[in-house]
Amino acid sequence: MLKFVKVRVEDTAAYRYLYNEDIFLLNSEKHLFNGEPLTIEPENTKAQYEPEAETLAQTVKASPIPYLGQNKKSLLVLTHYTDFSFIAPDHQAALEATLKRKDYTIDDIAIVNTAGSDGMTLSALREQLNPSKLLVLGNQAAMAELSELTFNQPQQFNNLPVLITFAFGEMMTSNENKKAFWEQAKNF
């Protein structure tokens, strides 16, 4: 990082001792130097760069990850839909029916669609939503951080209960997948 110092030159003849290169002024700057002592003010680099960092941090914090629901019971549900904001309407109806069996409503959860969100991380989701459990509907919805977890088996990931299971598209066409999902989800 560059550091600037304040130099105040009282006698312009001293420039030849301070600078051994010629200094040229632009025509637009000549009015600034009219024979009076030249003062080179330091630039406050800390003040110059910190507001940008603060602004960047505020921008990041001001851009929360969108989710569906009110997260009242801190259950985070990850989906992967390229053609819907959060979840397909018929899949949402099936999810709500499943939630009802566990005394949950759509307001109790937060549904986050991971499609098209390459920069989204589990740590950012945890910071924003503070989930007590994570249900991942489909391998496509699973973030890279979760790649080592076993499919359709409840596990712990950094002290967070996680279940990566079938997407509703996979369950709507297979009774076996529905049964396998429910066997794990009912105790999750």
Task: Please tell me about this protein's structure.
This protein has 6 helices and 7 strands; from the N terminus they run E-H-E-H-E-H-E-H-E-E-E-H-H. The strands form 2 sheets. It has a 5-stranded mixed β-sheet, with helices on one face. A two-stranded antiparallel sheet has the order 1-2. Helices cover 31% and strands 15% of the residues. The protein folds into 2 domains: 7-62, no CATH class; 75-185, Uracil-DNA Glycosylase, subunit E (3-Layer(aba) Sandwich). The chain is an alpha/beta fold.
Q: Which band does the percent of strand residues land in?
A: 5-15%
Main β-sheet, spatial strand arrangement: 4-3-5-7-6
Which structural class fits the helix and strand makeup? alpha/beta
What is the CATH H-level superfamily of the largest domain? Answer: Uracil-DNA glycosylase-like domain
Largest sheet: 5 strands, mixed
What overall form do the CA principal axes indicate? elongated
Regions with little confidence, pLDDT below 50 for 5+ residues:
45-49
Overall domain count: 2
Mean pLDDT reading: 81
**Whole-number radius of gyration?**
30 Å
Q: Helix-strand pattern, N to C?
A: EHEHEHEHEEEHH
CATH topology name of the largest domain: Uracil-DNA Glycosylase, subunit E
Please provide the count of β strands.
7
**Known CATH architecture of the largest domain:** 3-Layer(aba) Sandwich
N-to-C terminal Cα separation, in Å? Answer: 52 Å
Number of helices: 6
Q: What is the CATH class name of the largest domain?
A: Alpha Beta
Helix content: 25-40%
